[in-house]
Amino acid sequence: MSGTTPSTADEIAALFRGAIRSGRLGDGERLPTVRQTAKDFDVAQATAAKAYKALEHEGLVVTRTAAGTRVAPGASRAPQAVIERARALAEAGEDAGVSLEDVVAILRAVWAADQPGPESH
Amino acid sequence: MSGTTPSTADEIAALFRGAIRSGRLGDGERLPTVRQTAKDFDVAQATAAKAYKALEHEGLVVTRTAAGTRVAPGASRAPQAVIERARALAEAGEDAGVSLEDVVAILRAVWAADQPGPESH
DNA sequence: AAGATTGTGCTAGCTTTCCAGTACAAGTCG
DNA sequence: CGACTTGTACTGGAAAGCTAGCACAATCTT
């Protein structure tokens, strides 16, 4: 019931981005092939390719034409403090039975609250 | 550089959802009118209306035709533990200079990691 | 060196969503 | 009661993204 099966290039990119930044995919580790990812998420190859392209553009992965796509050396993990607090939040959320989407919405709201509010009415 | 200005019905709904679940919008508090929200985010009225509709469908808001849309009584705040940890994560993320989108991606990855993998082929 | 693997590029068509403007119904407030 | 406010509904058109299939180039593997 995670509910959210990625179905757009952005969502797929976000998925791998998370895997990389959270350390679940380590330096130099290989991502599935474009074709495989397309199958996995039941999308067109062009969509999976677009996702990979975005990741490369961000410097998160390195892609060589026939060698596959691998996590770029160095620029992988986010600071441990962030990861740990993310874990804490995830655990709290699941314990409380709050859906992932809700937790994300809360995080966004809290994030915006810290900064000088752009919204004014 | 908050970057993400909501421009779709889903995103707008998510924004208010976060505001409500995080307690930034309390019980009975009134949301902007559909027309106002449409202006605020520079979208069509139908789009703002669709967002409100979704929120009502989730039971987060109550809407009476000429009295406006208000936060539904009771079903508002998420558990305090979740909110606090969300705050902690937000602070850690901003301190570390990690973007909101990245933090969200990490959260999603960590969340999925706890549960049995939905991947199946 | 030869064949298989893998990322890229392209076209055409489709589906979904949003836009814009307007009209209507239901409730509030003076 | 009467005027205003506010959410809802509708039409037609436009834009963005995905699908599907194929061809190509670069690299790996044997």
From TrEMBL, chains A, B:
InterPro entries the UniProt entry points to: HTH_trans_reg/aminotransferase, Tscrpt_reg_HTH_GntR, WH-like_DNA-bd_sf, WH_DNA-bd_sf
GO molecular function: DNA binding; DNA-binding transcription factor activity
TM ranges: none
Domain of life per record: Bacteria
Key words, A-Z: DNA-binding, Pyridoxal phosphate, Transcription, Transcription regulation
Segments forming domain HTH gntR-type: 6-74
Name of protein: Transcriptional regulator, GntR family
Native organism taxonomy: Bacteria, Bacillati, Actinomycetota, Actinomycetes, Micrococcales
